[in-house]
Each structure stands twice: as structure tokens, then as C-alpha cells.
Description:
Blueprint: E1 7-13, E2 17-22, E3 29-30, E4 44-45, H1 55-69, E5 76-79, H2 91-99, E6 105-109, H3 117-123, E7 128-132, H4 138-145, H5 153-166, E8 170-176, H6 186-196, E9 200-204, H7 220-234, E10 239-242, H8 256-266, E11 269-270, H9 271-278, H10 285-294, E12 299-303, E13 306-310, H11 326-329
Parallel strand pairs: 2-5, 3-4, 5-6, 6-7, 7-8, 8-9, 9-10
Antiparallel strand pairs: 1-2, 11-13, 12-13
The structure holds iron/sulfur cluster.
Amino acid sequence: MVGLERVFGPVFSRRLGRSLGVNNLPGKICTYSCVYCQAGRTARLTVERAAFCDWREVVEEVDRALRAVGAGGVDYVTFVPSGEPLLDANLGRAVRAVRDLGVRVAILTNASLLWREDCRADAAEADLVSVKVDAASVGVWRALNRPHPQLRLSQVLEGLLEFSRGFGGTLITETMLVDGVNTGGLEAVAELVARLRPSKAYISVPTRPPAEPHVRPPGAAKLVEAFRAFADRLGEGRVELLNLPEPPPPPPRWDPVAWLTSTASVHPLRLEHALAALEGVVDDPWEVISRLESEGAVEVVEYSGARYIVRRVGSAASDGAGPRDPAVSTV
Ligand code: SF4
């Protein structure tokens, strides 16, 4: 079996179908440190783009994974690292090369760098771009997304609007609701999303272990309120709630340990889903997971009554801003 480090899944995504994930960053490197992030607190908070990895190697891994999965085995190759994909200065090149393999490409971005022309150009290479729109006010944005101090919300929103006007592919939005943090003032967020004219606006809630333990999904009444605020402005057919855990992934098609660790670093796996996926692939799935846990390669954590396998990847360096305490960053 081949060993792949930068490619994970495929996982089932309700937005994208069978999604083969690409992690084009070597650790938790992001412009934000969202309180709900399933990859943990941001180890390197930065707004500087850089060539974090060899994009040709990334494309080569995608090619090998696509061969292992088989023709037609994925709906999208998705750039969804444990951080912000547009920080990768070679993202546009990598996306173009992956599309040349004959697959559709998606990028899931927090949209914080779309005010930059080079980032808009790189994002526009994809067939589908999902942009994060969690907040319309500076206070909520800082409390929830904990952005790099050099970022300005007005600039981020202008970049988003400009990208939405020029992008010829499929644009979708994702709004994560965290109880008590952005569940008030949703009309303004819905107005903003409507101005972007996405083909679909997704409203999601934290279903996997978050960076901060106080993060909770809102109750049913708030979800309905949010849905109505969005549907009134976009039409019911263009709004979807993502409030249930995703279905289990298919069994790994390459080295099961690499599959497990690379997937868990970006996409926490429900323990029972991981056990089911490894059944028949390794002799004793429990033994593999226990060994990885005792080696410190993964952690098993509990969230909302379920157990998840996570891999919290860090990065040695920080460009000075560093992760911040949620209490300090709440404005
Ligand atoms: S949720 Fe996305 S944008 Fe927020 S810290 Fe995690 S990787 Fe960055």
C-alpha cells in the first residue's frame, strides 16, 4: 500500500459528496484561531503567504491517491488543510495541476485573504470555493474567529464581495453557529451572505471536538431562527442546515496508519467510524488505534457524548502574533 502524507480520506461531505482532502500546510497555520476549530488552537497565526511545501509533491500524492481510489471514486479533490489554504503561495499552481488530472477541485477558505488580488486569482482556479461567513460585526468576528491582528473585517468583507462578483465557478458559504457567541444578530450575517449570491448557504454547528471546551452548538430554536433569517433573504432552496455528524468514511485504500493519522489531523473521526473503516483492513483495529494513542500520534477525545480520534498538529514557529486566550481576544 502507498503511504500518503498530504492526502486524506476520501470522506463523505454533505456539501461535496466524496471528497479527497489535501492538506497543503505542514501544521496548524492559519490567519484565524477560531474557537470552534476542529484542528485545535492555531500554532502559527500569520497573514504571510509562503511556499510551505513542494506543490509538485502534493500533486503527485493526489495522483497516487486517485489511482488507489479508482476512477470515479471521488467527486472533489478538496484543499482543506489544518489551516488556511490560501496561505500557500503555490495554491493556484497546485489547483491547476490537480484539475489537469481530470478531477474537480474545491477550496474551503476562511476568505480572510481574498482582499489580495493574488489570493482571488488562486481561489478562482478552483471549480468550487466555500467561504466562511460567521460574523458581520468586529466584536463577534474577534470573539469567534480570533483573527490575526493585522486583519480588518471591512477589508475582508470587501475582498469577499469582490471575489463573489468575479468568480465563475460555484460559490458556497458556510456559517458556523456557536451558542452565545454569534447566535444574536444573524440578520446582518444573512444580509451579507445574500450579497455574495452563493449557490448555497450552509449553516453548520460544531459537531466535532472544538479548540475551546466551552464551545457548544445552539439549541433547536436558534437553529430555526438562523434558517429563517437566511431563507428569507436567499430563498429556502438555497439554505441548508448541517447540524448532524457526517456519515462514516469508506475503508482506506492505502496504508491504514497513514490514512488514519492524516485524516484525523484535519477531520476528527468518530471512533466507531474509524473502527468500522479499519475492519478487514488490519487484523485488530483496536490495537492499531491504541498503539497510535500510546505513541502520541493521535488522541481519543470526547465531545457531545461521542468519542473522536483527533491529531492536533502544531508548528514550531510563530510570526509573533501567536494563539491568544479566548478571554483576551473577546472584544
Ligand atoms: S476553523 Fe478554519 S479558519 Fe478557523 S482556525 Fe480552523 S482552520 Fe483556521
